[in-house]
UniProtKB/TrEMBL annotation:
It comes from Deinococcus rufus. This is Arsenate reductase ArsC. Its EC number is 1.20.4.4. It holds the Pfam family LMWPc. It comes from the Bacteria. The lineage of its organism: Bacteria, Thermotogati, Deinococcota, Deinococci, Deinococcales.
Length: 153
């Protein structure tokens, strides 16, 4: 089973949403993935993230904000995906077997629920394409901007 880590600064919004969306896409594709999220700092999962994910039927109520060092086997991921520029800069070095990707998303914090939904929907398209590529035996797209959003059945 491949392991995926989604890394952001606070593990409070973008990485939490991306973790749930990636798990959901993998489930729909029948692709076994072990998906985690973490931050360079731990805070709390934001209520607006919980709200917009619940609209898709994805429950973040059991999620907690954690750092990379709170994740088991933190150095054994097949993919490490950073979703903000700060995390990309602070991301530790991984062994040669880890593929790093940087899929930056706007921080929806402090914005309206419509802004949260826009980021969520952009992430959904991105991580659906990510899972679709892996399910097809391809490598993860180098950039979500370069990859067509492919719905996962």
């Amino acid at each position: 089973m491949r392991r995926v880590l989604i890394l952001c600064t606070h593990n409070s919004a973008r990485s939490q949403m991306a973790e749930a969306l990636t798990r959901d896409a993998a489930r729909r594709a029948g692709l076994p993935l072990d998906v985690h999220s973490a931050g360079t700092e731990a805070t709390r999962v934001k209520d607006d993230a919980k709200t917009v994910m619940a609209e898709l039927g994805l429950d973040l109520s059991g999620h907690t904000s954690k750092t990379l060092w709170d994740v088991s086997d933190a150095q054994t991921f097949d993919y490490v995906i950073t979703v903000c520029d700060s995390a990309a800069e602070a991301c530790p070095v991984y062994p040669g077997t880890t593929t790093r990707r940087h899929y930056p998303f706007v921080d929806p914090s402090g914005g309206s629920l419509d802004r949260w939904r826009a980021v969520r929907d952009q992430q959904r398209a991105c991580f659906d394409a990510f899972v679709h590529a892996l399910a097809a035996g391809a490598d993860a797209p180098p950039s979500y901007a370069d990859s067509p959003a492919v719905p996962v059945a």
